[in-house]
Amino acid sequence: MAKAKSETTTAAEQPQRIPAMQRLLDNHFLLLFIGVVVPTVLYLLWGVMELSQIPIAE
Amino acid sequence: MSITADTTVIGGIAAKFRTCPATGLQVDLAAERLIKANAVAAIVFLAIGGLFGLLVALTRWPAVHLLSSDMFYLVLTAHGLDVLLVWIIFFEMAVLYFASAIILNCRLAAPRIGWLGFALMLVGALLTNVTVLQGDASVMFTSYVPMQAPPNFYLGLILFAVGALLGCFIFLGTLVIAKEEKTYEGSIPLVTFGALTACIIAVFTIASGAIILIPTWLWSLGYISHIDTVMYKLVWWAMGHSSQQINMAAQVAIWYAIPAMLLGAKPLSEKVSRSAFLMYILFLQLASAHHMLVEPGISSEWKVFNTSYAIYLAVLGSMIHGMSIPGAIEAAQRRNGFTNGVFEWLRRAPWGNPAFAGMFLSLVLFGFLGGISGVVLGTEQINIMLHNTLYVPGHFHATVVAGTTLAFMAITYLLVPLIFQREIIWPRLAKWQPYLFGLGAAGISLFMMGAGTLGVSRRHWDITFSDAALSFDYPPAAFLMLGLNGLSGILAAIGGGLFVVIIVASVLFGKKVDASNVVAALGPTPQKQMSDTVSTYGSAGTFHLPGTYILVSIFFTAFVLYYFVNWKYLSELWQLG
Ligand code: HEM
Question: What's the number of domains chain B is made of?
Answer without folding.
Answer: 1
